[in-house]
Specification:
38% of the residues lie in helices and 20% in strands. It has helices at 3-18, 21-28, 32-46, 62-85, 102-119, 172-177, 228-236, 250-254, 284-293, and strands spanning 51-53, 58-60, 94-100, 123-129, 143-147, 156-159, 166-170, 194-195, 206-209, 214-217, 224-225, 242-245, 259-261, 272-276.
Length: 295
């Protein structure tokens, strides 16, 4: 097969993934014009349309979807072989793309990766700071970071952070007007502000656990937000109670601007993990990344 045909097939796979020429151009280090010409050449050679293009969107045709089913495993096999060959290099190198929430990025990735990159200057890291738990295979990331309980079942997880606890909190002004809940069931008498998880769109149900009991509480529908800082601002304003991971509010608890209740019902759970797929052999650079983040 002619070299250009292989390049065009790879380009098609990236465009089909991103459904956007400009994003594909960034990932491929090319231009939108070059991407468009490559797709035109590929479609002319095959004789069928692979992509539907408008000024606002790109979608994959039925023929394109069929091609992609065969193409993706082949491209992944090639990437695996290339990754295995990297072990023969004296100096680890390559790009690692990671999707990670802001808190994990700042508290875990920044200090660990800054030190790693100073020791391995040939390795490049690209971090997409996001609250969404990404499908890293579908979206072509090498790894993602999320709280352990949110992991997809087909992913390998490497714990990189300590265990966490959820905290139910309110402002001193709120508790000056309202009695503190003693049992989780008491929450039905309090305005509880909901948190809608970005990406999934589900509203987090508050979970409580003691030695012999478990309890789940659905927050009110009167007020729901999908951003943690805004959720905390509402609690600070005295609007009601919230339930958030305690690491987000440690400073506010220490300064007594928020007060925690139901301490004994807050069970620890798995903290942040680096997750990745077994469908790709880890490169030398990726193994160094895991060693740098390993607890």
């Amino acid at each position: 097969m002619h070299r250009d045909h292989l390049l065009n097939l790879h380009t098609f796979a990236v465009v089909a993934q991103e459904k956007n020429f400009s994003k594909a151009a960034v990932l491929l280090g090319s231009t939108q014009s070059a991407i468009s010409h490559a797709m035109n050449r590929l479609e002319d050679r095959i004789g069928v349309r692979l992509l539907n293009r408008t000024t606002r969107s790109v979608s994959v045709t039925q023929a394109g979807t069929q091609l992609l089913k065969t193409l993706r495993p082949s491209l992944e096999s090639i990437e695996t072989v290339l990754a295995e060959l990297e072990s023969f290099r004296d100096i680890p190198s390559g790009l690692i793309r990671i999707a990670s929430p802001e808190h994990a990025t700042r508290q875990i990735l920044v200090p660990a990766l800054a030190q790693m990159l100073s020791s391995y200057p040939e390795i490049s890291i690209e971090i997409d700071v996001t609250l969404q738990v990404k499908d890293i295979v579908e979206e072509q990331y090498d790894a993602g970071v999320c709280i352990g309980e949110l992991l997809h079942k087909d992913m390998v997880a490497l714990p990189i952070g300590p265990k966490m606890r959820m905290a139910v909190v309110g402002s001193p002004e709120y508790f000056a007007r309202n009695e503190s809940p003693v049992m989780p069931q008491d929450l039905k008498n309090h305005p509880c502000i909901g948190y809608r998880r970005p990406g999934t769109g589900t509203i987090y149900e508050w979970e409580f656990e003691s030695e012999s009991q478990t309890y789940r509480h659905k927050p009110d529908r009167a007020l729901t937000v999908n951003e943690l800082d805004t959720l905390i601002d509402f609690a600070l304003s005295g609007a009601g109670l919230i339930c958030v991971p305690d690491f987000h509010i440690l400073d506010k608890l220490e300064n007594n601007v928020l007060i925690q209740v139901l301490h004994n019902w807050s069970a620890p759970f798995e903290g942040y993990s680096l997750y990745y797929s077994t469908r790709r052999a880890p490169t030398q650079a990726f193994r160094i990344l895991m060693d740098s983040l390993r607890l």
